[in-house]
Protein backbone atom coordinates (compact mmCIF):
# COMPACT_ATOMS: atom_id res chain seq x y z
CA UNK A 1 0.00 0.00 0.00
CA UNK A 2 1.39 3.37 -1.02
CA UNK A 3 1.48 5.87 1.81
CA UNK A 4 0.17 9.37 1.05
CA UNK A 5 2.66 12.20 0.75
CA UNK A 6 2.69 15.19 3.09
CA UNK A 7 1.37 17.34 0.27
CA UNK A 8 -1.53 14.95 -0.35
CA UNK A 9 -2.39 14.87 3.34
CA UNK A 10 -2.45 18.68 3.46
CA UNK A 11 -4.63 18.84 0.33
CA UNK A 12 -7.11 16.34 1.78
CA UNK A 13 -7.23 18.25 5.07
CA UNK A 14 -7.85 21.48 3.15
CA UNK A 15 -10.70 19.88 1.21
CA UNK A 16 -12.19 18.62 4.47
CA UNK A 17 -12.14 22.15 5.89
CA UNK A 18 -13.78 23.58 2.76
CA UNK A 19 -16.44 20.82 2.64
CA UNK A 20 -17.29 20.80 6.37
CA UNK A 21 -16.54 24.25 7.85
CA UNK A 22 -19.45 24.11 10.32
CA UNK A 23 -18.43 20.66 11.50
CA UNK A 24 -14.83 21.63 12.13
CA UNK A 25 -15.91 24.84 13.86
CA UNK A 26 -17.84 22.61 16.30
CA UNK A 27 -14.76 20.43 16.73
CA UNK A 28 -12.66 23.52 17.50
CA UNK A 29 -15.28 24.80 19.96
CA UNK A 30 -15.31 21.39 21.62
CA UNK A 31 -11.52 21.43 22.06
CA UNK A 32 -11.42 25.03 23.35
CA UNK A 33 -14.23 24.33 25.86
CA UNK A 34 -12.46 21.19 27.05
CA UNK A 35 -9.16 23.07 27.44
CA UNK A 36 -10.89 25.79 29.44
CA UNK A 37 -12.57 23.27 31.74
CA UNK A 38 -9.33 21.36 32.24
CA UNK A 39 -7.40 24.50 33.11
CA UNK A 40 -10.00 26.15 35.31
CA UNK A 41 -11.48 22.91 36.74
CA UNK A 42 -14.74 24.65 37.63
CA UNK A 43 -17.75 22.92 39.13
CA UNK A 44 -20.05 25.34 37.36
CA UNK A 45 -19.29 26.86 33.97
CA UNK A 46 -20.82 27.76 30.62
CA UNK A 47 -18.07 25.58 29.17
CA UNK A 48 -20.15 22.47 29.84
CA UNK A 49 -23.09 23.47 27.57
CA UNK A 50 -20.63 24.48 24.84
CA UNK A 51 -18.76 21.18 25.15
CA UNK A 52 -21.82 18.94 24.93
CA UNK A 53 -23.62 20.95 22.26
CA UNK A 54 -20.49 21.11 20.09
CA UNK A 55 -19.94 17.36 20.54
CA UNK A 56 -23.43 16.70 19.15
CA UNK A 57 -22.83 19.28 16.43
CA UNK A 58 -19.98 17.34 14.83
CA UNK A 59 -22.15 14.43 13.56
CA UNK A 60 -25.31 16.53 13.15
CA UNK A 61 -23.74 19.15 10.88
CA UNK A 62 -21.77 16.48 9.01
CA UNK A 63 -25.06 14.71 8.24
CA UNK A 64 -26.65 17.96 6.99
CA UNK A 65 -23.60 18.84 4.84
CA UNK A 66 -23.50 15.37 3.25
CA UNK A 67 -27.24 15.43 2.64
CA UNK A 68 -26.86 18.78 0.86
CA UNK A 69 -24.05 17.35 -1.31
CA UNK A 70 -26.05 14.25 -2.22
CA UNK A 71 -29.20 16.20 -3.06
CA UNK A 72 -27.19 18.78 -5.07
CA UNK A 73 -28.56 21.68 -3.05
CA UNK A 74 -27.30 25.15 -3.81
CA UNK A 75 -24.55 26.57 -1.58
CA UNK A 76 -27.03 29.02 -0.08
CA UNK A 77 -29.50 26.29 0.83
CA UNK A 78 -26.71 24.09 2.19
CA UNK A 79 -25.40 26.86 4.43
CA UNK A 80 -28.94 27.77 5.51
CA UNK A 81 -29.79 24.21 6.57
CA UNK A 82 -26.55 24.00 8.52
CA UNK A 83 -27.33 27.29 10.26
CA UNK A 84 -30.65 25.74 11.23
CA UNK A 85 -28.67 22.88 12.74
CA UNK A 86 -26.59 25.43 14.68
CA UNK A 87 -29.78 26.95 16.08
CA UNK A 88 -30.93 23.50 17.22
CA UNK A 89 -27.57 23.04 18.94
CA UNK A 90 -27.90 26.41 20.67
CA UNK A 91 -31.33 25.37 21.92
CA UNK A 92 -29.90 22.13 23.22
CA UNK A 93 -26.97 23.96 24.82
CA UNK A 94 -29.39 26.16 26.76
CA UNK A 95 -30.88 23.01 28.29
CA UNK A 96 -27.50 21.62 29.38
CA UNK A 97 -26.82 22.16 33.10
CA UNK A 98 -23.76 24.15 34.05
CA UNK A 99 -23.01 22.40 37.37
CA UNK A 100 -20.83 19.29 37.27
CA UNK A 101 -20.17 16.69 38.57
CA UNK A 102 -23.31 17.03 40.68
CA UNK A 103 -25.79 16.50 37.86
CA UNK A 104 -28.21 13.63 37.76
CA UNK A 105 -27.75 10.82 35.28
CA UNK A 106 -30.87 11.75 33.27
CA UNK A 107 -28.88 14.40 31.39
CA UNK A 108 -26.19 11.91 30.41
CA UNK A 109 -28.75 9.30 29.34
CA UNK A 110 -30.44 11.83 27.07
CA UNK A 111 -27.06 12.93 25.67
CA UNK A 112 -26.12 9.33 24.81
CA UNK A 113 -29.45 8.77 23.04
CA UNK A 114 -29.14 12.00 21.05
CA UNK A 115 -25.52 11.20 20.18
CA UNK A 116 -26.57 7.76 18.92
CA UNK A 117 -29.35 9.37 16.90
CA UNK A 118 -27.14 11.96 15.17
CA UNK A 119 -24.43 9.36 14.41
CA UNK A 120 -27.09 7.18 12.77
CA UNK A 121 -28.27 10.30 10.96
CA UNK A 122 -24.85 10.60 9.29
CA UNK A 123 -25.24 7.03 8.08
CA UNK A 124 -28.79 7.30 6.72
CA UNK A 125 -29.63 10.93 5.83
CA UNK A 126 -27.70 11.29 2.50
CA UNK A 127 -29.37 8.11 1.17
CA UNK A 128 -32.80 8.57 2.69
CA UNK A 129 -34.50 8.48 -0.72
CA UNK A 130 -35.65 5.19 -2.19
CA UNK A 131 -33.11 3.15 -4.17
CA UNK A 132 -29.30 3.18 -4.35
CA UNK A 133 -29.02 0.35 -1.83
CA UNK A 134 -25.55 -0.57 -3.04
CA UNK A 135 -24.45 3.06 -2.82
CA UNK A 136 -25.86 3.24 0.70
CA UNK A 137 -23.93 0.10 1.69
CA UNK A 138 -20.68 1.25 0.07
CA UNK A 139 -21.02 4.67 1.72
CA UNK A 140 -21.41 3.20 5.21
CA UNK A 141 -18.65 0.67 4.60
CA UNK A 142 -16.33 3.56 3.74
CA UNK A 143 -17.36 5.49 6.85
CA UNK A 144 -16.80 2.53 9.17
CA UNK A 145 -13.43 1.67 7.63
CA UNK A 146 -12.37 5.30 7.81
CA UNK A 147 -13.44 5.46 11.45
CA UNK A 148 -11.35 2.39 12.20
CA UNK A 149 -8.28 3.88 10.48
CA UNK A 150 -8.85 7.21 12.24
CA UNK A 151 -8.91 5.49 15.63
CA UNK A 152 -5.60 3.73 14.90
CA UNK A 153 -3.91 6.89 13.60
CA UNK A 154 -5.17 8.91 16.58
CA UNK A 155 -3.87 6.42 19.13
CA UNK A 156 -0.48 6.19 17.38
CA UNK A 157 -0.20 9.98 17.10
CA UNK A 158 -1.11 10.50 20.74
CA UNK A 159 1.30 7.78 21.89
CA UNK A 160 4.15 9.29 19.87
CA UNK A 161 3.56 12.82 21.13
CA UNK A 162 3.05 11.62 24.71
CA UNK A 163 6.39 9.81 24.61
CA UNK A 164 7.99 13.01 23.26
CA UNK A 165 6.56 14.96 26.21
CA UNK A 166 7.80 12.29 28.61
CA UNK A 167 11.25 12.55 27.03
CA UNK A 168 11.31 16.31 27.61
CA UNK A 169 10.31 15.72 31.20
CA UNK A 170 12.76 12.93 31.99
CA UNK A 171 15.74 13.79 29.77
CA UNK A 172 15.79 17.57 29.77
CA UNK A 173 14.11 18.35 33.08
CA UNK A 174 11.25 20.26 31.43
CA UNK A 175 8.31 20.07 33.82
CA UNK A 176 5.29 18.54 32.04
CA UNK A 177 2.20 18.40 34.29
CA UNK A 178 0.00 15.33 33.93
CA UNK A 179 -2.78 17.61 32.76
CA UNK A 180 -0.86 18.24 29.52
CA UNK A 181 -1.27 14.60 28.50
CA UNK A 182 -5.03 14.92 28.91
CA UNK A 183 -5.03 18.11 26.84
CA UNK A 184 -2.95 16.37 24.18
CA UNK A 185 -5.53 13.58 24.00
CA UNK A 186 -8.34 16.14 23.74
CA UNK A 187 -6.51 17.88 20.86
CA UNK A 188 -5.89 14.62 18.98
CA UNK A 189 -9.41 13.24 19.44
CA UNK A 190 -11.20 16.58 19.19
CA UNK A 191 -9.44 18.18 16.23
CA UNK A 192 -7.06 15.82 14.42
CA UNK A 193 -9.50 12.88 14.37
CA UNK A 194 -12.46 14.82 12.85
CA UNK A 195 -10.25 16.39 10.15
CA UNK A 196 -8.63 13.06 9.28
CA UNK A 197 -11.99 11.24 9.26
CA UNK A 198 -13.78 13.84 7.12
CA UNK A 199 -10.89 13.91 4.66
CA UNK A 200 -11.71 10.30 3.81
CA UNK A 201 -15.45 10.76 3.28
CA UNK A 202 -16.24 10.08 -0.42
CA UNK A 203 -16.85 13.21 -2.50
CA UNK A 204 -18.66 11.46 -5.37
CA UNK A 205 -21.62 10.05 -3.47
CA UNK A 206 -23.52 9.31 -6.67
CA UNK A 207 -20.75 7.10 -8.00
CA UNK A 208 -20.79 4.76 -5.00
CA UNK A 209 -23.85 2.92 -6.31
CA UNK A 210 -21.83 1.70 -9.31
CA UNK A 211 -19.04 0.16 -7.20
CA UNK A 212 -19.14 -3.64 -7.25
CA UNK A 213 -16.12 -4.52 -5.11
CA UNK A 214 -16.48 -6.46 -1.87
CA UNK A 215 -13.57 -6.93 0.56
CA UNK A 216 -12.63 -10.60 0.98
CA UNK A 217 -11.64 -10.01 4.58
CA UNK A 218 -15.12 -8.67 5.32
CA UNK A 219 -16.70 -11.79 3.85
CA UNK A 220 -14.48 -14.03 6.00
CA UNK A 221 -15.34 -11.99 9.11
CA UNK A 222 -19.09 -12.00 8.45
CA UNK A 223 -19.36 -15.58 7.21
CA UNK A 224 -17.02 -17.42 9.57
CA UNK A 225 -16.83 -15.26 12.69
CA UNK A 226 -20.18 -13.52 13.08
CA UNK A 227 -22.25 -16.41 11.76
CA UNK A 228 -20.45 -18.78 14.11
CA UNK A 229 -21.43 -16.53 17.00
CA UNK A 230 -25.01 -16.43 15.71
CA UNK A 231 -25.18 -20.24 15.74
CA UNK A 232 -23.74 -20.44 19.26
CA UNK A 233 -26.18 -17.82 20.57
CA UNK A 234 -29.05 -19.54 18.79
CA UNK A 235 -28.29 -22.94 20.33
CA UNK A 236 -28.00 -21.47 23.82
CA UNK A 237 -31.19 -19.44 23.55
CA UNK A 238 -33.30 -22.24 22.08
CA UNK A 239 -31.98 -24.65 24.72
CA UNK A 240 -33.09 -22.13 27.35
CA UNK A 241 -36.45 -21.75 25.59
CA UNK A 242 -36.88 -25.53 25.73
CA UNK A 243 -36.05 -25.44 29.45
CA UNK A 244 -38.74 -22.80 30.00
CA UNK A 245 -41.33 -24.93 28.21
CA UNK A 246 -40.37 -28.13 30.06
CA UNK A 247 -40.20 -26.60 33.54
CA UNK A 248 -42.80 -23.91 32.87
CA UNK A 249 -40.64 -21.27 34.57
CA UNK A 250 -40.80 -17.57 33.88
CA UNK A 251 -37.71 -16.44 31.92
CA UNK A 252 -34.88 -14.77 33.87
CA UNK A 253 -34.19 -11.09 33.25
CA UNK A 254 -30.57 -11.78 32.31
CA UNK A 255 -31.65 -13.60 29.16
CA UNK A 256 -32.76 -10.24 27.72
CA UNK A 257 -29.14 -9.19 27.20
CA UNK A 258 -28.37 -12.46 25.43
CA UNK A 259 -31.36 -12.09 23.09
CA UNK A 260 -30.42 -8.50 22.26
CA UNK A 261 -26.81 -9.57 21.61
CA UNK A 262 -27.94 -12.42 19.36
CA UNK A 263 -30.28 -10.14 17.41
CA UNK A 264 -27.62 -7.45 16.97
CA UNK A 265 -25.01 -9.90 15.67
CA UNK A 266 -27.55 -11.58 13.38
CA UNK A 267 -28.69 -8.32 11.79
CA UNK A 268 -25.08 -7.09 11.50
CA UNK A 269 -24.13 -10.32 9.71
CA UNK A 270 -26.91 -9.86 7.17
CA UNK A 271 -25.96 -6.21 6.66
CA UNK A 272 -22.31 -7.04 6.03
CA UNK A 273 -23.17 -9.71 3.46
CA UNK A 274 -25.90 -7.72 1.72
CA UNK A 275 -23.97 -6.85 -1.52
CA UNK A 276 -23.13 -10.51 -2.26
CA UNK A 277 -26.48 -12.06 -1.37
CA UNK A 278 -27.60 -12.25 -5.02
CA UNK A 279 -24.48 -13.98 -6.33
CA UNK A 280 -25.12 -17.54 -7.48
CA UNK A 281 -22.73 -19.10 -4.98
CA UNK A 282 -24.38 -17.21 -2.08
CA UNK A 283 -28.02 -18.18 -2.49
CA UNK A 284 -27.92 -19.51 1.08
CA UNK A 285 -27.60 -15.94 2.40
CA UNK A 286 -31.11 -15.02 1.25
CA UNK A 287 -32.57 -18.19 2.75
CA UNK A 288 -30.63 -17.70 5.99
CA UNK A 289 -31.87 -14.12 6.22
CA UNK A 290 -35.50 -15.20 5.98
CA UNK A 291 -35.16 -18.01 8.52
CA UNK A 292 -33.16 -15.84 10.86
CA UNK A 293 -36.08 -13.44 11.22
CA UNK A 294 -38.45 -16.37 11.74
CA UNK A 295 -36.39 -17.90 14.58
CA UNK A 296 -36.22 -14.47 16.21
CA UNK A 297 -40.00 -14.45 16.82
CA UNK A 298 -40.04 -16.80 19.88
CA UNK A 299 -36.97 -15.05 21.26
CA UNK A 300 -38.65 -11.65 21.05
CA UNK A 301 -41.60 -13.11 22.97
CA UNK A 302 -39.19 -14.37 25.67
CA UNK A 303 -37.55 -10.93 25.74
CA UNK A 304 -40.89 -9.25 26.43
CA UNK A 305 -41.79 -11.83 29.10
CA UNK A 306 -38.45 -11.40 30.88
CA UNK A 307 -38.62 -7.60 30.88
CA UNK A 308 -42.30 -7.32 31.80
CA UNK A 309 -41.79 -9.64 34.78
CA UNK A 310 -39.27 -7.21 36.23
CA UNK A 311 -41.55 -4.29 35.41
CA UNK A 312 -44.43 -6.01 37.20
CA UNK A 313 -42.29 -6.51 40.31
CA UNK A 314 -40.31 -3.26 40.44
CA UNK A 315 -41.84 -0.84 37.92
CA UNK A 316 -40.20 0.73 34.89
CA UNK A 317 -36.62 1.96 34.93
CA UNK A 318 -34.44 3.15 32.07
CA UNK A 319 -32.93 -0.30 31.50
CA UNK A 320 -36.34 -2.02 31.44
CA UNK A 321 -37.77 0.67 29.18
CA UNK A 322 -34.79 0.13 26.85
CA UNK A 323 -35.51 -3.61 26.85
CA UNK A 324 -39.11 -3.01 25.79
CA UNK A 325 -38.05 -0.43 23.17
CA UNK A 326 -35.48 -2.83 21.68
CA UNK A 327 -38.11 -5.57 21.65
CA UNK A 328 -40.51 -3.31 19.72
CA UNK A 329 -37.74 -2.37 17.28
CA UNK A 330 -36.82 -6.03 16.72
CA UNK A 331 -40.48 -6.91 16.18
CA UNK A 332 -40.67 -4.13 13.58
CA UNK A 333 -37.60 -5.58 11.79
CA UNK A 334 -39.16 -9.05 11.72
CA UNK A 335 -42.47 -7.79 10.33
CA UNK A 336 -40.79 -5.58 7.74
CA UNK A 337 -38.32 -8.14 6.38
CA UNK A 338 -40.83 -11.00 6.37
CA UNK A 339 -43.77 -9.19 4.79
CA UNK A 340 -42.42 -6.12 2.97
CA UNK A 341 -41.72 -6.39 -0.75
CA UNK A 342 -38.87 -3.88 -0.81
CA UNK A 343 -36.88 -5.26 2.17
CA UNK A 344 -34.56 -2.26 2.14
CA UNK A 345 -31.61 -2.40 4.53
CA UNK A 346 -32.09 1.34 5.03
CA UNK A 347 -35.04 0.46 7.25
CA UNK A 348 -32.68 -1.02 9.86
CA UNK A 349 -30.62 2.13 10.45
CA UNK A 350 -33.46 4.54 9.69
CA UNK A 351 -35.85 3.00 12.22
CA UNK A 352 -33.09 2.76 14.84
CA UNK A 353 -32.26 6.44 14.32
CA UNK A 354 -35.94 7.39 14.67
CA UNK A 355 -36.28 5.30 17.85
CA UNK A 356 -33.22 6.96 19.40
CA UNK A 357 -34.69 10.42 18.89
CA UNK A 358 -38.24 9.50 19.91
CA UNK A 359 -37.35 7.95 23.26
CA UNK A 360 -34.86 10.66 24.22
CA UNK A 361 -37.45 13.27 25.25
CA UNK A 362 -41.08 13.86 26.19
CA UNK A 363 -43.44 12.19 28.69
CA UNK A 364 -43.39 9.08 26.46
CA UNK A 365 -39.58 8.94 26.48
CA UNK A 366 -37.30 6.70 28.47
CA UNK A 367 -36.76 9.28 31.22
CA UNK A 368 -40.32 10.54 31.55
CA UNK A 369 -41.94 7.09 31.72
CA UNK A 370 -39.33 5.71 34.12
CA UNK A 371 -39.59 8.63 36.53
CA UNK A 372 -43.39 8.55 36.49
CA UNK A 373 -43.43 4.79 37.17
CA UNK A 374 -41.05 4.96 40.12
CA UNK A 375 -42.72 8.03 41.66
CA UNK A 376 -46.09 6.24 41.40
CA UNK A 377 -44.62 3.15 43.11
CA UNK A 378 -43.14 5.32 45.85
CA UNK A 379 -46.44 7.10 46.38
CA UNK A 380 -48.33 3.81 46.64
CA UNK A 381 -45.85 2.38 49.16
CA UNK A 382 -46.01 5.51 51.32
CA UNK A 383 -49.80 5.68 51.14
CA UNK A 384 -50.02 2.00 52.10
CA UNK A 385 -48.06 2.78 55.28
CA UNK A 386 -49.94 6.06 55.94
CA UNK A 387 -46.70 7.98 55.31
CA UNK A 388 -48.35 9.95 52.48
CA UNK A 389 -51.76 11.47 53.20
CA UNK A 390 -53.54 13.81 50.77
CA UNK A 391 -50.34 14.32 48.81
CA UNK A 392 -48.27 15.33 51.85
CA UNK A 393 -45.70 13.37 53.83
CA UNK A 394 -46.88 12.25 57.27
CA UNK A 395 -44.15 11.24 59.73
CA UNK A 396 -46.66 10.15 62.39
CA UNK A 397 -47.45 6.66 61.16
CA UNK A 398 -47.08 3.09 62.29
CA UNK A 399 -44.11 0.81 61.84
CA UNK A 400 -43.05 0.26 58.23
CA UNK A 401 -42.19 -3.33 57.36
CA UNK A 402 -38.62 -4.12 56.42
CA UNK A 403 -39.62 -5.09 52.86
CA UNK A 404 -41.47 -1.81 52.28
CA UNK A 405 -38.66 0.24 53.84
CA UNK A 406 -36.18 -1.46 51.54
CA UNK A 407 -38.32 -0.71 48.48
CA UNK A 408 -38.81 2.92 49.52
CA UNK A 409 -35.08 3.28 50.12
CA UNK A 410 -34.34 1.81 46.70
CA UNK A 411 -36.72 4.16 44.87
CA UNK A 412 -35.50 7.30 46.64
CA UNK A 413 -31.89 6.30 45.94
CA UNK A 414 -32.82 5.78 42.28
CA UNK A 415 -34.50 9.18 42.06
CA UNK A 416 -31.51 10.88 43.68
CA UNK A 417 -29.11 9.25 41.22
CA UNK A 418 -31.12 9.55 37.98
CA UNK A 419 -33.78 12.28 38.15
CA UNK A 420 -33.52 14.28 41.35
CA UNK A 421 -36.37 15.03 43.73
CA UNK A 422 -38.39 17.53 41.67
CA UNK A 423 -41.29 15.09 41.20
CA UNK A 424 -41.65 14.39 44.95
CA UNK A 425 -40.75 17.86 46.28
CA UNK A 426 -44.47 18.88 46.52
CA UNK A 427 -44.93 16.14 49.12
CA UNK A 428 -42.57 17.87 51.56
CA UNK A 429 -42.73 21.15 53.44
CA UNK A 430 -38.90 21.29 53.58
CA UNK A 431 -36.66 21.74 50.57
CA UNK A 432 -34.93 18.58 49.38
CA UNK A 433 -31.95 20.60 48.19
CA UNK A 434 -29.17 22.06 50.29
CA UNK A 435 -27.27 25.14 49.13
CA UNK A 436 -23.53 24.58 48.89
CA UNK A 437 -20.73 27.07 49.49
CA UNK A 438 -19.79 26.94 45.82
CA UNK A 439 -23.17 28.41 44.88
CA UNK A 440 -25.03 25.42 43.48
CA UNK A 441 -27.74 23.39 45.20
CA UNK A 442 -27.26 19.70 45.86
CA UNK A 443 -29.89 17.11 46.77
CA UNK A 444 -29.98 15.93 50.34
CA UNK A 445 -29.01 12.29 50.80
CA UNK A 446 -31.61 9.52 50.37
CA UNK A 447 -31.29 8.63 54.06
CA UNK A 448 -32.19 12.22 54.98
CA UNK A 449 -35.23 12.09 52.69
CA UNK A 450 -36.44 8.90 54.37
CA UNK A 451 -35.83 10.47 57.76
CA UNK A 452 -38.23 13.26 56.73
CA UNK A 453 -40.75 10.51 55.88
CA UNK A 454 -40.23 8.77 59.21
CA UNK A 455 -39.10 5.63 57.37
CA UNK A 456 -35.85 3.77 58.21
CA UNK A 457 -33.35 3.85 55.37
CA UNK A 458 -31.95 0.45 54.37
CA UNK A 459 -29.01 0.59 52.00
CA UNK A 460 -28.41 -2.56 50.01
CA UNK A 461 -26.71 -3.73 46.84
CA UNK A 462 -28.82 -5.44 44.26
CA UNK A 463 -31.88 -7.65 44.76
CA UNK A 464 -30.19 -9.72 47.45
CA UNK A 465 -30.55 -6.90 49.99
CA UNK A 466 -27.10 -6.89 51.57
CA UNK A 467 -26.64 -5.29 54.99
CA UNK A 468 -23.16 -4.76 56.35
CA UNK A 469 -22.58 -4.72 60.11
CA UNK A 470 -19.22 -3.57 61.42
CA UNK A 471 -17.66 -2.58 64.74
CA UNK A 472 -13.87 -2.68 64.45
CA UNK A 473 -11.46 -1.67 61.73
CA UNK A 474 -8.37 -3.74 60.99
CA UNK A 475 -6.19 -1.59 63.27
CA UNK A 476 -8.43 -1.82 66.34
CA UNK A 477 -7.18 -3.59 69.48
CA UNK A 478 -9.59 -5.83 71.36
CA UNK A 479 -9.57 -6.60 75.06
CA UNK A 480 -8.91 -10.32 75.58
CA UNK A 481 -8.44 -10.26 79.32
CA UNK A 482 -9.44 -13.65 80.67
CA UNK A 483 -8.25 -15.42 77.54
CA UNK A 484 -4.80 -16.77 76.74
CA UNK A 485 -4.47 -16.39 72.99
CA UNK A 486 -6.20 -14.95 69.96
CA UNK A 487 -6.42 -15.93 66.29
CA UNK A 488 -6.62 -12.57 64.54
CA UNK A 489 -8.60 -11.40 61.52
CA UNK A 490 -9.87 -14.66 60.09
CA UNK A 491 -11.68 -14.11 56.76
CA UNK A 492 -14.75 -16.21 56.00
CA UNK A 493 -16.24 -15.99 52.49
CA UNK A 494 -17.05 -18.22 49.53
CA UNK A 495 -13.32 -18.67 48.86
CA UNK A 496 -12.34 -19.47 52.45
CA UNK A 497 -10.44 -22.61 53.38
CA UNK A 498 -12.66 -25.12 55.15
CA UNK A 499 -10.04 -25.79 57.80
CA UNK A 500 -7.36 -23.47 59.22
CA UNK A 501 -4.81 -24.55 61.84
CA UNK A 502 -3.38 -22.17 64.42
CA UNK A 503 -1.46 -22.38 67.67
CA UNK A 504 -3.47 -24.93 69.64
CA UNK A 505 -6.62 -24.14 67.65
CA UNK A 506 -8.28 -25.16 64.40
CA UNK A 507 -11.75 -24.68 63.01
CA UNK A 508 -14.09 -26.01 60.36
CA UNK A 509 -16.48 -23.63 58.60
CA UNK A 510 -20.04 -24.89 58.21
CA UNK A 511 -22.00 -24.88 54.98
CA UNK A 512 -22.91 -21.38 53.78
CA UNK A 513 -20.80 -19.96 56.65
CA UNK A 514 -23.73 -20.32 59.07
CA UNK A 515 -21.65 -22.06 61.77
CA UNK A 516 -18.05 -22.58 62.89
CA UNK A 517 -16.74 -25.62 64.79
CA UNK A 518 -13.70 -24.58 66.85
CA UNK A 519 -11.32 -27.26 68.19
CA UNK A 520 -8.89 -26.23 70.96
CA UNK A 521 -6.20 -28.34 72.58
CA UNK A 522 -3.34 -30.63 71.58
CA UNK A 523 -2.71 -34.20 70.61
CA UNK A 524 -1.36 -34.94 74.09
CA UNK A 525 -4.09 -33.26 76.15
CA UNK A 526 -6.92 -33.86 73.72
CA UNK A 527 -9.30 -31.44 71.99
CA UNK A 528 -12.43 -29.63 73.10
CA UNK A 529 -14.96 -28.52 70.49
CA UNK A 530 -17.10 -25.37 70.64
CA UNK A 531 -19.98 -24.99 68.16
CA UNK A 532 -20.69 -21.36 67.22
CA UNK A 533 -24.07 -20.71 65.61
CA UNK A 534 -23.28 -17.73 63.36
CA UNK A 535 -26.72 -17.84 61.71
CA UNK A 536 -28.49 -17.32 65.05
CA UNK A 537 -26.19 -14.39 65.83
CA UNK A 538 -26.93 -12.89 62.38
CA UNK A 539 -30.68 -13.27 62.99
CA UNK A 540 -30.27 -11.45 66.29
CA UNK A 541 -28.45 -8.57 64.59
CA UNK A 542 -31.10 -8.29 61.88
CA UNK A 543 -33.90 -8.22 64.45
CA UNK A 544 -32.19 -5.60 66.60
CA UNK A 545 -30.52 -3.38 64.02
CA UNK A 546 -31.84 -4.34 60.58
CA UNK A 547 -34.11 -1.30 60.29
CA UNK A 548 -31.55 1.24 61.48
CA UNK A 549 -30.70 4.27 59.36
CA UNK A 550 -27.54 3.74 57.36
CA UNK A 551 -25.71 4.96 54.30
CA UNK A 552 -23.14 2.20 53.82
CA UNK A 553 -22.93 -0.01 56.89
CA UNK A 554 -24.46 -0.33 60.32
CA UNK A 555 -21.88 0.61 62.94
CA UNK A 556 -22.50 -1.52 66.03
CA UNK A 557 -20.88 -1.27 69.44
CA UNK A 558 -18.02 -3.79 69.74
CA UNK A 559 -19.64 -5.69 72.62
CA UNK A 560 -22.80 -6.15 70.57
CA UNK A 561 -20.69 -7.68 67.80
CA UNK A 562 -19.08 -10.32 70.06
CA UNK A 563 -20.06 -13.82 71.13
CA UNK A 564 -18.72 -15.28 74.39
CA UNK A 565 -19.28 -19.01 74.91
CA UNK A 566 -18.35 -21.82 77.28
CA UNK A 567 -18.78 -25.39 76.03
CA UNK A 568 -17.18 -28.60 77.25
CA UNK A 569 -15.21 -26.58 79.78
CA UNK A 570 -13.72 -24.44 76.99
CA UNK A 571 -14.04 -20.65 76.91
CA UNK A 572 -13.94 -18.65 73.65
CA UNK A 573 -14.96 -15.20 72.48
CA UNK A 574 -15.45 -14.19 68.86
CA UNK A 575 -15.12 -10.49 67.95
CA UNK A 576 -16.82 -9.77 64.59
CA UNK A 577 -15.11 -6.90 62.81
CA UNK A 578 -17.29 -7.14 59.71
CA UNK A 579 -20.39 -9.16 58.88
CA UNK A 580 -22.33 -9.05 55.59
CA UNK A 581 -25.84 -10.54 55.61
CA UNK A 582 -28.93 -10.71 53.45
CA UNK A 583 -32.30 -12.42 53.82
CA UNK A 584 -33.27 -15.38 51.68
CA UNK A 585 -36.79 -16.75 52.09
CA UNK A 586 -37.03 -15.06 55.47
CA UNK A 587 -33.77 -16.51 56.79
CA UNK A 588 -30.38 -14.78 57.14
CA UNK A 589 -27.82 -15.61 54.46
CA UNK A 590 -24.23 -14.94 55.54
CA UNK A 591 -22.04 -13.79 52.66
CA UNK A 592 -18.81 -13.02 54.45
CA UNK A 593 -17.35 -11.97 57.78
CA UNK A 594 -14.04 -11.16 59.42
CA UNK A 595 -13.50 -12.14 63.05
CA UNK A 596 -10.93 -12.42 65.84
CA UNK A 597 -11.18 -15.62 67.91
CA UNK A 598 -9.96 -15.35 71.52
CA UNK A 599 -9.64 -18.59 73.52
CA UNK A 600 -8.41 -19.88 76.86
CA UNK A 601 -6.18 -22.91 77.08
CA UNK A 602 -7.51 -25.60 79.37
CA UNK A 603 -5.19 -25.96 82.38
Index terms:
single chain, 603 residues, alpha+beta, 6-stranded mixed β-sheet, 4-stranded antiparallel β-sheet, 14 strands
Structural features, described:
The chain has 603 residues and is of the alpha+beta class. The chain has four domains: 6-210, no CATH class; 216-361, no CATH class; 367-453, no CATH class; 467-599, no CATH class. The protein contains 16 helices and 14 strands. It has helices spanning 6-19, 21-40, 47-71, 75-95, 105-124, 133-171, 178-199, 216-247, 255-272, 283-314, 318-339, 346-358, 366-384, 402-418, 446-453, 534-545, and strands spanning 388-389, 392-393, 433-435, 441-443, 467-470, 485-492, 499-501, 505-509, 515-522, 526-533, 554-555, 562-567, 570-584, 587-599. Strands 5, 6, 11, 12, 13 and 14 form a six-stranded mixed beta sheet that branches. Helix 3 packs antiparallel against helix 4 (75-95), helix 6 (133-171) packs antiparallel against helix 7 and helix 9 runs antiparallel to helix 10 (283-314). The longest helix has 39 residues, at 133-171.
Amino acid sequence: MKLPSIRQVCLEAGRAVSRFPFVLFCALACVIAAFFLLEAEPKQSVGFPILFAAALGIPLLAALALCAEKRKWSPGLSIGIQWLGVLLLVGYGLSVPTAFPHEHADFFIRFVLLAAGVVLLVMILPYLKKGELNGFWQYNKTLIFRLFVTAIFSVVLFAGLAIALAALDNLFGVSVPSKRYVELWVFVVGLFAPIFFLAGVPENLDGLDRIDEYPKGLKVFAQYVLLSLVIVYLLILYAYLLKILMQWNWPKGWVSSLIIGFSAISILSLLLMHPIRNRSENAWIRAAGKWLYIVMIPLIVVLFLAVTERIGDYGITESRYAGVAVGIWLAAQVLYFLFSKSKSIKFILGSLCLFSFLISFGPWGILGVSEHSQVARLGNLLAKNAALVNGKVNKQHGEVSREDAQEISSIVTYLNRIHGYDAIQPWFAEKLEADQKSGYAQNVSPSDVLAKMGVPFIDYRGAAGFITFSSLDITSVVDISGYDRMLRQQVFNENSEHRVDGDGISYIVGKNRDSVSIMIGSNQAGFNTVQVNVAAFAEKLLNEYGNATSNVALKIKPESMAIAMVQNGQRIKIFFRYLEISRREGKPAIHSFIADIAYALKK
